[in-house]
Amino acid sequence: MVPGTVNELSAHDRMILDLEKTEHTSVAREALCRHIELPLDKYTVVLEGIVDTDAAYSYAPDVVERVRQLRAERFAFERRHGRWKNPRS
User: Fold this and answer.
1) Which of 4, 25, 17, 29 has its CA nearest to residue 67?
2) What 8-state DSSP symbol labels residue 37?
3) Does any domain span residue 26?
4) Which of 22, 60, 65, 77 is the 20 to 30 Å CA partner of 13?
């Protein structure tokens, strides 16, 4: 994790985390992306980066834990199906 405090999250980071706290729709995600001028295809990449910070965990621990759990499940699925190879192997 990247050390930090809640004050180190940008306003856009907080907007993304706040949206993830809700049962949002794809329309809401698209509207937020337009508002903060973030390409829709970059939303998940930005979210994944945000949840690796202490600041995000301090601000929205439930969101961070959920996103990290989903990422771990995706990784395990890819591993099981041979879609991810360890570069050190």
Assistant:
1) 17
2) T
3) yes
4) 77
Are 62 and 29 in contact by the 8 Å Cβ rule? The answer is: no
Residue 87 lies in a domain: no
Q: Are 11 and 55 in contact (CB under 8 A)?
A: no
Residue 21 banded pLDDT, cuts 50, 70, 90:
very high
How many helices (H) and strands (E) in the chain? 5, 0
Distance of alpha carbon 78 from alpha carbon 89, whole angstroms: 16
Domain count of the chain?
1
Which residue range(s) make up the domain with 46? 6-80
Q: Is residue 14 part of a domain?
A: yes
SS3 12: helix
pLDDT band at 76; cut points 50, 70, 90: confident
Hey, what are 12's tokens? 């856009």
